[in-house]
Design goal:
It is a single chain. The chain is rod-shaped, with a radius of gyration of 26 Å. It has 6 helices and 2 strands. The protein is mainly α. A two-stranded parallel sheet has the order 1-2.
């Protein structure tokens, strides 16, 4: 969801830049030096200190639930093994009870996994939105300090010169905070 929002923002920015360039073509040609920067948001969310700390924090929050899910999987495996080994020797009612227990445990396991994935996604989006706010403040700080006219957040551009990529500057600014 967050990546979709970022990609949509990127597309919107590219369209605005293209429209502005077309509309102001002659003005831009005579405006002198225009300073443009590009930022790779995905790299910031992967490599910056706040992003790494957020990732560790989220992992720690979900360790107990992950352990619980692993226990459920082990219990289901043990039930399955017991059923496979002893089903011939078991009475019909005992076998049915075991099968029912296994089916219930399997449903509970799948539900718990799905719920954890959803909760994990929500938590990641919460943390990443805070990081993106901080990133935008850092970008504004850099833009003002270094007199940038335009800074775009792009991930999948066809080509961009390293000369205009300020992602590492943004990461350093975030890491200093």
């Amino acid at each position: 969801m967050l990546k979709q929002q970022i990609n949509q923002q990127r597309r919107n920015l590219v369209m605005v830049v293209i429209a502005a360039a077309i509309a102001c073509g002659f003005t831009v040609a005579f405006a002198g030096d225009i300073k443009i920067g590009v930022v790779n948001t995905e790299k910031i969310l992967r490599e910056s200190q706040p992003a790494l700390l957020a990732q560790k924090k989220i992992e720690q929050e979900f360790v107990p639930r992950d352990e619980e899910i692993k226990k459920m999987a082990l219990e289901a495996k043990n039930l399955q093994d017991k059923l496979e080994k002893n089903s011939i020797k078991m009475e019909e009612t005992e076998r049915r009870n075991l099968e029912r227990n296994l089916a219930n445990l399997s449903r509970e396991y799948q539900r718990a996994q799905r719920q954890m994935r959803e909760d994990l996604s929500v938590r990641q989006n919460e943390e990443y939105s805070v990081i993106l706010e901080r990133t935008n403040r850092a970008i504004s700080k850099i833009a003002e300090a270094e007199n940038y006219d335009l800074i775009l957040q792009l991930q999948d551009s066809v080509y961009r010169s390293q000369r205009i990529d300020i992602t590492d500057k943004v990461i350093k600014t975030l890491d200093k905070e």
